[in-house]
Amino acid sequence: MIHDSITDCVGGTPLVRLGRLFPQPGIEVLAKLEMLNPGGSVKDRSARYIVERGISDGMIRPGTHIVESTSGNFGVALAMVAVRYGLRFTAVVDPNASRTNLRILRQFGAGIEMVRDPDSAGGYLHTRLARVQDLLAEDPDAVWINQYANHLNWETHAVTTAREVIDDCPERPVDVLVAAVSTTGTLHGLARGLRRVWPALHVVAVDAVGSVIFGTPPGPRMLPGVGSSRVPELFTPAEIDRVVHIDDAAAIRGCHRLLRQEAIFAGGSSGSVVAAVEEILPQLPRPSRVLTLLADRGERYLDLVYTDEMAIEHGELAYSSHP
């Protein structure tokens, strides 16, 4: 198949059986490699879907200025889609943004608005959102994507990701879905799409220790891509059967195990879901088929997860023998 643009390459990601990492009899763990989307993450799906729906509905037009509070994968995905459709994009970020992501955003030509004043909670979320409102007031062509409240965020996965999984598993259903949460759009959309065909699906949300989504106390979190300092408007707790909280250390160990045993070089939230699957496996009936998502690639975490110091600290061998 020959595609007409990079956004046409979004989706169609493969499923891989994690049989080396989880060799338990009667348990099959499948991972959907969302890291293989062209922009490097699962967020390519929602960025493409939301922008294309906006164009179709007339909310996004030539000259529209897309604005979003993000310095992570969604920002990179929006920057890529904005170039494809000739749109302006500004990411509102804070000092915690990684230098790698900021450099990627600049390469795509995105505008970057850096806020530096902490909010009343000691973080930057409310400061970033206030700056978004300023940009909307200053520019009549500005449109806020608002991934935490935009129903198209979860609809993306109900329409695309779930359908791909169902098509790839014709012989038997998935019994358990294990997915990391931040906006909760990926988890809810995938679960809703899968439950249309497999209503008995058991849904496990993987949250970070220090995240407030499920009402637990706020705390410091090192890894991006999992957890949130606010409760997303999309969040529907009644649709989730279980939540597993994973701390940074366990997530980092999960990343290293995934790389060492499956040769999959993935980002921080992938380590979180690996740790969560390991935690719930003893309670699962046999046989069980488990589905998880590996949301992004490991390259953007080289200075955070994959340093030699981290490898030694978490009981793994350093990968390079060269000085």
TrEMBL record:
<dbReference type="InterPro" id="IPR001216">
    <property type="entry name" value="P-phosphate_BS"/>
</dbReference>
<dbReference type="InterPro" id="IPR050214">
    <property type="entry name" value="Cys_Synth/Cystath_Beta-Synth"/>
</dbReference>
<comment type="pathway">
    <text>Siderophore biosynthesis.</text>
</comment>
<comment type="subunit">
    <text>Homodimer.</text>
</comment>
<dbReference type="GO" id="GO:0006535">
    <property type="term" value="P:cysteine biosynthetic process from serine"/>
</dbReference>
<comment type="function">
    <text>Catalyzes the synthesis of N-((2S)-2-amino-2-carboxyethyl)-L-glutamate (ACEGA) from O-phospho-L-serine and L-glutamate.</text>
</comment>
<comment type="similarity">
    <text>Belongs to the cysteine synthase/cystathionine beta-synthase family. SbnA subfamily.</text>
</comment>
<keyword id="KW-0663">Pyridoxal phosphate</keyword>
<feature type="domain" description="Tryptophan synthase beta chain-like PALP">
    <location>
        <begin position="6"/>
        <end position="296"/>
    </location>
</feature>
<dbReference type="InterPro" id="IPR023927">
    <property type="entry name" value="SbnA"/>
</dbReference>
<dbReference type="GO" id="GO:0016765">
    <property type="term" value="F:transferase activity, transferring alkyl or aryl (other than methyl) groups"/>
</dbReference>
<dbReference type="InterPro" id="IPR036052">
    <property type="entry name" value="TrpB-like_PALP_sf"/>
</dbReference>
<keyword id="KW-0808">Transferase</keyword>
<dbReference type="InterPro" id="IPR001926">
    <property type="entry name" value="TrpB-like_PALP"/>
</dbReference>
<protein>
    <recommendedName>
        <fullName>N-(2-amino-2-carboxyethyl)-L-glutamate synthase</fullName>
        <ecNumber>2.5.1.140</ecNumber>
    </recommendedName>
</protein>
<dbReference type="Pfam" id="PF00291">
    <property type="entry name" value="PALP"/>
</dbReference>
